[in-house]
């Protein structure tokens, strides 16, 4: 029941983000495509690579992990300060316990929710000349990581075993690096579906 609750909250946060951004997106079973005429998308960061996939709400999801990091630091500083103020008599014991309990509860909740936002892919780039792929994803603390790999190191998502998280995201597994990334096909935009299928797998 607890994992199901987390999944529902995670999906609601993505849904609210999509309503805020207000993009006109058409949903298919697992693919989201813009209604407007298809145009070539060029990456400013990797101009030599072709953009295969974009998750429009990656910055909003990243903010969840960034907020978690800031609140963890704040809580780490606040607990010793609260204890110190309690020992000097400025704060009562009950107030100190309440502050510490509240801080730990919020921090634990943010870390639990952040697990669903961890290793979430925001962009996929591909270079046809040498078959190199760049998977840009969000790490545990909300930082962007640009992972360069080759097409033959990526397991097809269609070959992965069925998981209860499939309605929210699929897993991109790189066995050689012992790394598992998350990709949201329901709200993401596949720019080049043919090459996406050849590299990431069927959708």
TrEMBL record:
It is a multi-pass membrane protein. It is found in: Mitochondrion inner membrane. GO terms for cellular component: mitochondrial inner membrane. InterPro entries: Tmem186. The keyword Metal-binding does not apply. The keyword Ribosomal protein does not apply. Keywords: Membrane, Mitochondrion, Mitochondrion inner membrane, Transmembrane, Transmembrane helix. Its main location: mitochondrion. Belongs to the TMEM186 family. This is Transmembrane protein 186.
């Amino acid at each position: 029941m607890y994992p199901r609750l987390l999944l529902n909250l995670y999906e609601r946060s993505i849904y609210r983000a999509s309503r805020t951004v207000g993009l006109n997106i058409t949903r298919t079973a697992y693919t989201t495509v813009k209604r407007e005429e298809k145009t070539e998308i060029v990456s400013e960061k990797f101009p030599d690579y072709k953009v295969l996939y974009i998750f429009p709400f990656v910055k909003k999801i990243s903010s969840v992990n960034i907020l978690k990091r800031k609140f963890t630091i704040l809580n780490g500083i606040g607990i010793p300060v609260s204890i110190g103020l309690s020992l000097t008599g400025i704060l009562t014991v009950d107030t100190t316990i309440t502050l510490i309990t509240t801080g730990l509860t919020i921090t634990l909740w943010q870390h639990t929710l952040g697990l669903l936002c961890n290793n979430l892919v925001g962009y996929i780039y591909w270079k046809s000349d040498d078959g190199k792929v760049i998977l840009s994803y969000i790490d545990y603390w909300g930082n962007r990581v640009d992972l360069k790999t080759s097409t033959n190191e990526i397991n097809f998502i269609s070959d992965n075993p069925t998981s209860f998280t499939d309605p929210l995201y699929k897993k991109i597994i790189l066995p050689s690096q012992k790394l598992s990334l998350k990709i949201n096909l329901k709200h993401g935009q596949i720019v080049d579906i043919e090459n996406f299928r050849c590299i990431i797998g069927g959708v």
